[in-house]
Amino acid sequence: MASLGRHIIVEYYDCSPETLNDVTRIQESMEGAANKAGATIINSTFHHFSPYGVSGVVVIEESHLAIHTWPEYGYASVDLFTCGESVDPWISYQFLKEAFEAAHGSAVELKRGELALLTRKDFDIKQLRDDKSTEVGDPIRTKDVWFTERDDKIALSMKHNGKLYDEQSDFQRVEVYNTQAYGNMLTLDGMVMTTEKDEYVYHEMITHVPTLTHPNPKRALIIGGGDGGTAREMLKHESLEEVVMVEIDDKVIEACKLHLPRIASALDNPKLNLIVDDGIKYVKDAADGSFDIVIVDSTDPVGPAEGLFSVAFYKEVYRILSPDGVMITQSESPRFNNKVFKEIYQVYRSIFGVNNVHCYLAYIPTYPTGMWSFSYSSKGNAHPIEGFDLEKSKAFAEANDLSYYNEQIHTSAFALPNFVKKMINQ
What we know:
Rossmann fold; 2 domains; 13 helices; eleven-stranded mixed sheet
């Protein structure tokens, strides 16, 4: 042996984009390549970056295998570094070429640690052992696989145990991850939608604020909300005679029924009229004054939700509201989506009137910046604070064992920081 290690610098071309953007498959492929070559795995760490790309490393007793992918180009850059004579990195090279469905690859091998240039040192191994090794010095196997949602300024990363659901619908990529900190998590096109641990904040605030302030709500419409959380909370109000929910993507419903059943628990409720269709079309076809409450439970203004952020759509919502009707929307993060946030309130006020549009806030850890906003737009005399029945709200929250909403949260949510007030009034 003339050197300590063999280092192969690898490029794979024309690979499967779907494979290169799947952090779980990349992790399994890289670990499979290490095992196939006869290496001993110590640690695995992988990150998925939204919307494209995976980075990761498999630390082996004989060194490491590292990767970064560009799915949009079908390209992967890989380092295969092995020490000693027992592991052949070229076996890993061929394994990964097949796993990534690469049309072709290129590789350059370097010899690392030329023995002729090295002098062996003596040391006490017991002094160098750390808590990642057993008492006899054997490595302890660990694994870290991460999902990362990012844009060009901020990112959110969560360690997970694997992907439970992955389907490309006619509208978007629908995925469910089993995260270690927030339980099962739904993402759409790489953006976090909801998690088992913090979903109640969003769903309680988007539903109970309007329903406990409308004078006599009988019919409610939910646009979107495929996870089922908004419907679940709305159906806790016995005064409602019917709740209609229109979700465009049946794959979202399927994923949540399978893997987020506590959130989706009301999707089979006979009181819920669940329609899989285009919410924009449904609103356009609905009769004048046919709903007391309309909740627009949409994603960010991209993909299938883009049309839900238009003046024409909100005018149609205004039309189908009853005389005292209320529209509630999620209105983005005032700290993150500043431009969209401002434009939303300008549009609402142009339709409902300046004094009939109100912003309120809630705090959701897995949403960008944690601070999230909702809008309350009233067609008639309904008001979120004036005439608010504190005792009724308190009794409702206690009877339903709510986790976030209560009468004090209701009123304080409308107390806005000065910077939010300025943004709305610009």
